[in-house]
Amino acid sequence: MPPRIAMVAGEASGDLLASHLIRAIRRHLPDAEFFGIGGPKMQAEGFDALWPCELLAVHGYVDALKRYRELSGIRKQLLARIKRERPAAFIGVDAPDFNLWLEGKVKAAGMPAIHFVSPSIWAWRGGRIRKIARSVSHMLCMFPFEPALYERAGVPVSYVGHPLADVFPLAPNRAAAREMLELPSDAPVLALLPGSRQSEVRNLADTFISTAKLLHTRHPDAVFLVPLATRETRLLFAEALCRNQAGELPIRMLFGHAVDAMTAADVVLVASGTASLEAALLKRPMVISYRIGNWQYRLMKRMAYLPWVGLPNILCNETVVPELLQDDAVPDKLADALDAWLLDPAARRALAERFTELHHTLRQDTADKAARAILPYLGVEPSCPAHPST
User: Fold this and answer.
1) Is 281 part of a structural domain of the chain?
2) Cα distance between residue 325 and residue 340, in whole Å
3) What is the distance between the alpha carbons of residues 133 and 116, in angstroms, rounded to a whole number?
4) What Å distances lie between residue 65 and 62, 230, 303, CA to CA?
5) CA 176 to CA 172: how far, in whole Å?
6) What is the pTM of this model?
7) Looking at the structure, do residues 107 and 227 belong to the same domain, yes or no?
8) Which domain holds residue 55?
9) Residue 133 lies in a domain
10) CA 111: distance to chain centroid?
């Protein structure tokens, strides 16, 4: 009988990550079968999606409360099927609010429960690690500082690196990106990334546009790129351009192409999140900014354990790029911080060297390393140790 593995992945990022993991496991177990909740990329690898991963795309507490009954029902149905079929293992990919409960039930029923992508217990809600210890048989971590946290709590853990580090080149080609985007080779180019969610764009669009106006007065030949992921966020940013009477500003909105925009840029202004890690892997100097509701900011600040919110600073364990958040996220401060990078080539080169070291640390051939950590739970020993790609 081929081994059957239950999986749950949430949203597009989890779908992509899980599809790579399925492919890596199949290199060792070609007949393995996978079922559960997943998306089109997982299905392209032969995954049997009982429900689509888009169902788990919950945005904020209000949306989560509205959909609690629906999601709870799906989770219970899937658990009943897992208990009935008793697969060789369950793998939860991200989506911790959905998966940790399920993993705890699966583990209690005597089946291995593996969680891929550690929740951000190092940033806030550290008390969650007790629940995680009860729920999972093994944690797969993307960042090198995470395993020690789980080891102290007695959770079996493996560091598998970050998949973006496997995909992104160690030496990005800025000239090729500028040619592809039809940008001048010698003009200052700034990428503005106000976030992927509508709420983020609403909070940051006006500020980012005003910042671009200030920089344009200092650098009249500068070009500003604004990659936006959805039709809704493009519309919000276009409305902000009209509101700020910025029709003459040399801003180009792009539909997607965030990586191309950052590769082509001299400097990046980015909302805190995964995009800041992408900018670091592309060796780009950046300024990290974010603004949310004041009460929410005060709450999260009280619960935070680290002095930074940006992944580049967290991973380097020091302030290597400026973070201008909340009341400091104002156009004059942002413009000055961005201008400081533009005017200091030596600082840009030193930062690129630091980010190259970080890239090597995170480049671990994540999917294969994760598969090798999972194989013993499937009764298979990996044939030989994997080596990070270079």
Assistant:
1) yes
2) 18
3) 14
4) 5, 25, 22
5) 9
6) 0.88
7) no
8) 4-161+364-378
9) yes
10) 29
